[in-house]
Specification:
This protein is α+β, with helices and mostly antiparallel strands. It has a single domain, classed as Nuclear Transport Factor 2, Chain: A (Roll). A five-stranded antiparallel sheet has the order 1-5-4-3-2. A hairpin with a 2-residue loop joins strand 2 and strand 3. The chain starts with 7 loop residues before the first helix and ends with a helix.
Length: 182
């Protein structure tokens, strides 16, 4: 079906496409944080040609996803602003802000990242063609929050005691435990 600029079908397709593209960075963040390699790799178009550094693509991860995931023990990616510009019905570009906190094997690091994305629709599904990871800053934290005693949530008192300490994530993710068990 060819979509013209004035049809309800085209407008609906654009809205559905926006939603699908917005899901990609969220699923990327979850895939990395949960060390869910299957979810993570399903986000990429494997038919795209390999890219040059510093771009990230399917081929770089297919050759070294486990290595990439082992650069930190744990991570938290909070996806923020997401600007999407369509090039045509099956290609788009995006700018995605992301606040990252990561345990770099004992050193807690906070980063502000801007991803420059290329998206492509293949077989009706939106995927990453490539991503470029640009860093606003990375700073070493004075303390690693993973070094705290376990939290007593939800058994704390009215003064907030029990609301401080280490939680159960990422170890509660089945995929995280399976990843580190190998």
């Amino acid at each position: 079906m060819e979509l013209t600029t004035n049809t309800i079908e085209r407008r609906l397709d654009r809205l559905e496409s926006l939603h699908a593209i917005r899901q990609l960075p969220y699923r990327y963040a979850y895939g990395v944080d949960a060390r869910d390699l299957e979810t993570f790799m399903a986000l990429w178009d494997d038919s795209q040609p390999p890219t040059e550094y510093p771009d990230l693509d399917y081929h770089k991860f297919a050759q070294g996803t486990e290595r990439f995931f082992k650069t930190s023990v744990a991570s938290i990616h909070l996806v923020g602003n997401h600007v999407i510009d369509f090039l045509d019905d099956d290609h788009a570009k995006g700018k995605v802000y992301c606040w990252v906190q990561t345990d770099r094997h004992g050193t807690w690091v906070r980063q502000m990242v801007l991803y420059l994305d290329d998206y492509v629709r293949r077989d009706g599904r939106w995927l990453f063609a490539k991503r470029r990871h640009l860093l606003w800053y990375g700073e070493r934290a004075d303390a690693n929050p993973r070094d705290q005693e376990p939290m007593d949530w939800p058994h704390g008192d009215l003064q907030g005691n029990g609301s401080f300490g280490r939680g159960s994530l990422p170890e509660d993710f089945d995929t995280y435990r399976a990843f580190w068990a190998t």
